[in-house]
Amino acid sequence: MGGQAMTNRWYAKLLALFLAVLSWYLVSGRERVDTWVRVRIETAGLADGLVLRGAPREHLDVLVRGPRGLVRKLDPSDLVFTLDARKLSPGQNTVVIEPHSVPLSNVFEVVEIRPSKLEVTVERRTSKPLPVRLRVRDQLARDYRFSATLEPPVVTVTGPESLLKDLNEVVAELQDPPMEAKGSFDAVVSPLLPDQVESAPRTLKASVKYQLNMREAALDTPVRLLYHGKGAASVAPDSVLIKFRAPAMLLREGAWRGLVDAYVEVAETLPPGRHDVPYRVTLPQGCELIQARPETVSVIIK
């Protein structure tokens, strides 16, 4: 009997514990709490020929009141406010957001919505043909000359009326082409357009020819004398004026000055006296000699 009484007491304690936990769960579940949830905004029903000028917002902040247990289970990814665009007309529109438009169960109460209204601008959607101009980056434009043809040369752009009104051309930018001294290549380019503006077609074929930008330069260059004979030798004049054509990028860097050379090579068997001889000029790679003055120099052997 004593064992049975003890068992009954354990059952009674377990039952009491279960009832206590159940009571706590029911009470806490019914307790109403407030919490902020984020509600995504989507637009539907906008009439053909109209376009929203920029998105009003991406989301609403909604203060929700409801049972604690259910509030914890709210999943913001399931909450979407649908902006009914059928009622919108061109111009500025004010959309008041009513609590019943927030998609929540009746067990929840919408306490506050931020913002409580949306300002929505609607414009007419228009199209027009525009010529396309190819643009290269400033650095490339300084160093190379380009000529290009685009296919097609004209695209049709579509978008909000206010954006297209002052648009007279479309720019397509050439991105890092393979560059040598000169050559040609084909590339696919895309028009650079404002947000909410699109073009047809979306890509174009650019056939590009290019060559280095060349600049003229002149340098007073010392003449080196290469002579291994037994006598003394000198050269006059001791410097010459070298005019040449060079890539613009080379001249801009400045290191080219040490790469321009003028020299005269004298045979060891040259007899004493004054001899007018030609000299040689070496230039940096990619440069073209225009003129060297004087054409000859005098070598004096003593």
TrEMBL record:
InterPro entries: c-di-AMP_regulator, YbbR
Pfam entry (one): YbbR
Alphabetized Gene3D superfamilies for the sequence: 2.170.120.30, YbbR-like domain
Protein name as it appears in the record: YbbR-like domain-containing protein
Organism: Fundidesulfovibrio putealis
Higher taxonomy: Bacteria, Pseudomonadati, Thermodesulfobacteriota, Desulfovibrionia, Desulfovibrionales
